[in-house]
Design a protein that fits this description.
Low-confidence stretches of chain B: none
Radius of gyration of chain A: 20 Å
Structural class of chain A: alpha/beta
CATH architecture of the largest domain in chain A: 2-Layer Sandwich
Order of helices and strands of chain B: HEEEHHHHHEEHHHHHHHHEEEHHHH
Mean pLDDT of chain A: 78
Number of domains of chain A: 2
Largest interface: A-B, 47 and 48 residues
CATH class of the largest domain in chain A: Alpha Beta
Oligomer: heterodimer
Helix content of chain B: 40-55%
Structural class of chain B: mainly alpha
CATH superfamily of the largest domain in chain A: NADH:ubiquinone oxidoreductase Nqo5 subunit
Mean pLDDT of chain B: 87
Shape of chain A: elongated
Number of helices of chain A: 6
Largest sheet of chain A: 5 strands, mixed
Strand order of the largest sheet of chain B: 1-2-3
Radius of gyration of chain B: 28 Å
Number of strands of chain A: 7
Strand order of the largest sheet of chain A: 1-2-5-4-3
Largest sheet of chain B: 3 strands, antiparallel
Distance between the termini of chain A: 35 Å
């Protein structure tokens, strides 16, 4: 990548100077949009610096999403940042291999990432470490078919319509109206979503963080 | 009981004063220890089918008396996986999906999607198309805010403003129908232009609407803005500070009500918005009343933009003359073979967008509406992502309602102006 392309965006230059090895690449797309590829294991540190450094001041997180190109290629987690004082837009991407879909949650930096990261987990299966509320958001809690926006997920779902209907009918609607759902958000350690499927979720007051299993992706 | 017995019983009461009224004294003995009663918070469920949740939103509330201790929103009841569906359609076929997300402002979504794809492909639309799209977007901003205003008034207990607002909305429905043939699912844009040029006399209709809506707003404001019940229900309810609003990702009128003057039309201008003369209304307190006032004022500003756009509406073609995206004219199609082949390939295979990606943010009626499109060179998107403004706005609701009263939950929810079609997508 020629250096003059990077020089067009002051934050790209600053990121290069500040983080060096953790900046894996840079792209200029659609005329004026700068994309910076960052190392996933240092994403939290980089994003925090972008938010807090007075010369960057990216105080508004527009979006967190992911892109799956299919064919076994890594899934990209995409951060759209905007700095209102400097009127600058920057896109960061972290590429995660399919066998290591895990990245640090940025909810401590921007609260707006809370639901956005939950959606990425729900749709792509990317685990966000230390997320305060790691549940599914759009799909039902007991959804067992995987992560719908992945390229290996067929458009009509994994099972036949007959099987999908049978599963939907066999679900107990009472599962969705039990007080244990309120357990979500009370303590940092939450009931993993899989446990809701069998209606075995413990009451929130009895949740013992030590017996919780780590979430399967 | 006879009168005589009653008198006897009264006269026997030791605390009786001289005027035959009970003497003042302790109502309950105070030397007894307070019993340790176990208290339990009450759980209530609002929605998903409830008129005050403005769609299929479900809120689980934990109440201590009437105070909300915790609020857990549940969404996804309207999930239609539009983003996944979009990956199986070609670029133009995605347009009908966009207006089904925010059915309260369909033209803004149509335009935002087309703008993102055009930016990715490097297409500059014609001057007339730019102005027509500005008219469409401002028209639908008023359209969406009017529905919000009507339902807001219903939530506060006033029915008349609802009727006034919907009378005006009906005019926008008619304008939609005159232009696109549909009242809600407009699907008005195509990559590189619009589905058709505006019909004769449509611009006059928009001008009449822009004049009329301002008068209706005056009438509604007369009913609401200084109404005691309205003030009591909305002022100092659901307050959020400017820093928190930014940190929690508020955008649009909700963010501006907290005092942050961030408007995509001013901060990342598109379609010559910097050359239109309009103001960005901002609030100071970040409560429900400020959000109400900001939206009312925004409608007036949109009416101003409408007049300016109609004044500058240039003549000329509405669709760009780019063979990658535009169909050849019917005359060419019938007369030469190359145009026939070109037409056939565009219709059968769809537009082919070169590999690339683009994030286009526009100021939607609910906030910053981002369209993120990724192409690998084929005729279908690899990824089509909507940055949903109401989704992020709604995620703040636990912070706004916790510690407040149950009745305020309804007002806070109404003040956020959510549309579930876009939250669940």
């Amino acid at each position: 990548m020629p250096a003059n392309l990077r020089a067009a965006h002051p934050s790209v230059v600053a990121l290069d100077a500040h983080f060096g090895d953790a900046i894996l690449g840079h792209e200029l797309v659609a005329g004026d949009e700068h994309v910076v590829f960052i190392a996933p294991d240092r994403s939290f540190e980089i994003l925090q610096w972008l938010r807090e450094d007075p010369d960057q001041n990216y105080n508004y997180l527009s979006d967190v999403t992911a892109v799956d190109y299919g064919g076994g290629r890594p899934i990209q987690v995409v951060y759209q940042l905007f700095s209102i004082p400097y009127r600058r837009h920057l896109r960061l991407k972290a590429e995660l291999p399919l066998d290591g879909l895990e990245i640090e949650s940025i909810v401590p930096i921007w609260q707006s990432a809370n639901w956005l990261e939950r959606e990425v987990w729900d749709m792509f299966g990317v685990t966000f470490r230390n997320h305060p509320d790691p549940r599914r958001i759009l799909m039902p809690e007991g959804y067992q078919e995987g992560h719908p926006l992945r390229k290996d997920f067929p458009l009509r779902g994994r099972f036949s319509r007959a099987e999908q209907t049978r599963r939907a009918l066999s679900q107990d609607p009472e599962d969705y109206y039990v007080p244990s759902e309120m357990g979500a958000g009370r303590t940092p350690q939450l009931v993993p979503w899989q446990e809701f499927a069998g209606g075995r979720a413990p009451m929130s007051t009895q949740t013992d963080p030590s017996v919780e299993e780590p979430r399967k992706s | 009981m006879s009168k005589r017995t009653l008198e006897l019983e009264i006269s026997r009461t030791p605390e009786m004063g001289p005027d035959f009224r009970p003497a003042r004294g302790m109502m309950a003995p105070t030397d007894l220890p307070e019993p340790t009663l176990d208290s339990e918070n009450m759980l209530i469920n609002i929605g998903p089918q409830h008129p005050a949740t403005h769609g299929v939103l479900r809120l689980l509330l934990e109440l201590d008396g009437e105070t909300v201790v915790r609020c857990v929103p549940h969404i996804g009841y309207l999930h239609s996986s539009f983003e996944k569906l979009g990956e199986y359609r070609d670029w133009n076929q995605v347009v009908p999906l966009t207006d089904r997300m925010d059915y309260l402002a369909p033209l803004i979504y149509n335009c935002a999607y087309a703008m993102a794809v055009e930016k990715m492909m490097g297409i500059e639309v014609t001057e007339r198309c730019r102005v027509v799209r500005v008219i469409c977007m401002e028209l639908d901003r008023i359209f969406s805010h009017l529905l919000w205003l009507g339902t807001w008034a219903i939530d506060v207990g006033a029915f008349t403003p609802f009727l006034y607002a919907f009378q005006e909305r009906e005019k926008v429905y008619t304008l939609h129908e005159a232009y696109t043939g549909a009242r809600i699912t407009t699907s008005a844009t195509r990559i590189g232009g619009m589905m058709a040029d505006i019909p004769v006399g449509w611009d006059t209709g928009v001008r009449e609407f822009a004049n009329g809506v301002v008068k209706t707003l005056d009438e509604i404001e007369f009913l609401l803005s200084t109404n005691g019940i309205h003030l009591g229900r909305t002022q100092n309810v659901g307050i959020i500070s400017a820093e928190d609003a930014l940190n929690y990702g508020f955008s649009g009128p909700n963010l501006r009500a907290s005092g942050v003057p961030y408007d995509v039309r001013k901060d990342r201008p598109y379609y010559d918005y910097e050359s239109y003369d309009f103001d960005i209304p901002i609030g100071e307190h970040g409560d429900c009343y400020d959000r109400y006032m900001v939206r009312i004022e925004e409608m007036r500003q949109s009416a101003r933009i409408l007049h300016q756009a109609l004044d500058r509406l240039p003549e000329g073609p509405i669709n760009v003359a780019d063979p990658r995206v535009s169909l050849p004219s019917k005359t060419d199609l019938m007369n030469d073979m190359e145009s026939m082949i070109h037409h056939f390939k565009l219709v059968m295979e769809g537009i082919k967008a070169p590999a690339g990606e683009s994030y286009m943010a526009v100021e939607g009626s609910k906030g910053e509406l981002g369209m993120y499109v990724v192409s690998d060179g084929g005729s279908k998107p690899v990824r089509w992502r909507i940055r949903p403004p109401s989704f992020v706005n709604l995620s703040v609701i636990p912070k706004l309602v916790e510690g407040g009263l149950l009745a305020d939950v309804i007002m806070v929810n109404a003040s956020l102006d959510i549309v579930l079609g876009e939250i669940d997508r």
